[in-house]
């Protein structure tokens, strides 16, 4: 059975850093597109970043570009979201999402929105002083 396990969330002060992990269980993550979505209280869920299969292209929403980095460790079957210079508006529940068979062009043109086959349980990120 395919499973995603997220970790790495927590409470951090503005300007701090966190690294979110998304470990795949039961399948080879390398062959899947991976996205990170977030849901803030009272706000619409948004796609933060994504990466195409087999170390394909990456996409970042404008509010995190230059601060967040998405990458994979294929040996560990895990994807990561490195978040630096965190702001209070980065607060929310972060979800790892994967999709099999999505082309790189579709990943970019959809700005990660077409990555929606399997969702993790989410991890809370709170940025506050």
Structure description:
The chain has 129 residues and is mainly beta. Helices cover 5% and strands 47% of the residues. Strand 5 and strand 6 form a beta hairpin. The radius of gyration is 14 Å and the shape is globular.
The stretches of 5 or more residues where confidence is low (pLDDT under 50) are none
Shape: globular
Number of helices: 1
Computed over alpha carbons, the radius of gyration is 14 Å
Q: Please identify the structural class as seen in this structure.
A: mainly beta
Sheet with the most strands? 7 strands, mixed
Order of helices and strands: EEEEEEEEEHEE
Q: How much helix is in the residues?
A: under 10%
Summary of the model, kept short:
By secondary structure, the protein is mainly beta. The chain contains 1 helix and 11 strands.
What layout of secondary structure does this protein have?
Layout: E1 3-7, E2 10-12, E3 18-25, E4 32-39, E5 46-51, E6 58-60, E7 68-73, E8 78-83, E9 92-100, H1 104-109, E10 118-119, E11 123-127
Parallel strand pairs: 2-11
Antiparallel strand pairs: 1-3, 3-8, 4-5, 4-9, 5-6, 7-8, 9-10, 9-11
Keywords for this entry:
129 residues, mainly beta, 7-stranded mixed sheet, 4-stranded antiparallel sheet, 1 helix, 11 strands
